[in-house]
Structures are given as C-alpha cells and as structure tokens.
C-alpha cells in the first residue's frame, strides 16, 4: 500500500526550507500536482499545527503533516520531502526535522495500513539514514521497497 503512494512523483529531495510552514507546503505540493489533494488541505494542515503546536513531529527528525478528509483530500495519498539541511519545528529533542511526510486520508480508516507500513520504515534508523543521505528519488523508492519486502519475508 505504501509503495503505491510513495513514488517518483510524490517524493522530493530539497536542500532546505526557511521554516516548518514552507516545509509543509513543499512536502504537500506533489499531492496537489498529482490531483490527490486540494491546496486548501495544505493550509488546513498548517493551521492545525499553529493551533495545537508541533504534535506532527512524531520522532526525532520526522514530521507527519495531516488533516481531515473533508479539508480537501480527493484520494488516499502520501508524499515525502527530504530536507538535507533539516527544518526547525521548535521541538527541542526532535529538531532538526529532515523527513517531512504528508498524509491525505480519504476517510477515517483507510490510512491505517499505510501508517502501519510507514512505522516499519521509521523504526529502522539505518533506513532513515539511507533515505536522508540519498541524492536520487528512485534510490529512495528502492530503499523503501526493499525494507517493506524484507519485512514481509521475515
């Protein structure tokens, strides 16, 4: 499922973002470009962080932007932006953030399988380091694919 969502169209490698808001916009843009979400979804994600704080920083160096399906999700989707320089979210023990995911769930349940597969990736520090140090999107896709395939076999 995750492999259907994270691909050459939905993964970006960036040097930097001026702040966490710009990081969210950059990470969400591939989903707008592929017509999976509306622009207002990105605005809603940012408003949510402004209202509730940086709860989206789920682990050291990793953020997962998301919103409600009714905020502009057209179909289940996910994107990933890798920020080589890192982005400050003002979460002391988790900054800088280098992996910024955007999740667009079209309902309240379909994303659970995707999140479960994402957790397999994010629990492996070697995989995270390899994604961050990669300079090619197709290489990142292969890293993700190999990890998920290996995990299914074991």
From TrEMBL:
Q: Which GO BP terms apply?
A: phosphoenolpyruvate-dependent sugar phosphotransferase system
Any idea which UniProt keywords this protein has?
Answer: Cytoplasm, Kinase, Phosphoprotein, Phosphotransferase system, Transferase, Transport
Molecular-function GO term, any one: kinase activity
User: Where this protein primarily resides, as one coarse class?
Assistant: cytoplasm
Q: Sorted alphabetically, which Pfam families does this protein's record hold?
A: PTS_EIIA_2
- Give the signal sequence positions: none
InterPro entries in the record, alphabetically? Ascorbate-PTS_EIIA_comp, PTrfase/Anion_transptr, PTS_EIIA_type-2_dom
**Single GO cellular component term:** cytoplasm
Which subcellular locations apply to this protein? Cytoplasm
Q: Where is the PTS EIIA type-2 domain?
A: 4-147
Chain's role: The phosphoenolpyruvate-dependent sugar phosphotransferase system (sugar PTS), a major carbohydrate active transport system, catalyzes the phosphorylation of incoming sugar substrates concomitantly with their translocation across the cell membrane. The enzyme II UlaABC PTS system is involved in ascorbate transport.
Record-given protein name: Ascorbate-specific PTS system EIIA component
Q: Which organism does this record belong to?
A: Sporanaerobacter acetigenes DSM 13106
């Amino acid at each position: 499922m995750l492999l259907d969502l994270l691909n050459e169209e939905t993964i970006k490698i960036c040097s930097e973002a001026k702040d966490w808001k710009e990081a969210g916009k950059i990470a969400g843009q591939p989903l707008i470009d592929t017509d999976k979400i509306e622009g207002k979804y990105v605005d809603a994600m940012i408003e949510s962080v402004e209202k509730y704080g940086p709860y989206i920083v789920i682990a050291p160096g990793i953020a997962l932007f998301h919103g409600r399906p009714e905020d502009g999700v057209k179909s289940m989707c996910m994107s990933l932006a890798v920020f080589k320089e890192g982005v400050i979210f003002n979460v002391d023990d988790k900054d800088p953030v280098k992996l910024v995911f955007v999740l667009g769930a079209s309902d309240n349940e379909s994303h659970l399988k995707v999140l479960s597969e994402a957790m397999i990736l994010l629990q492996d520090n070697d995989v995270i380091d390899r994604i961050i140090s990669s300079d090619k999107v197709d290489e990142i896709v292969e890293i993700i694919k190999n990890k998920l395939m290996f995990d299914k076999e074991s």
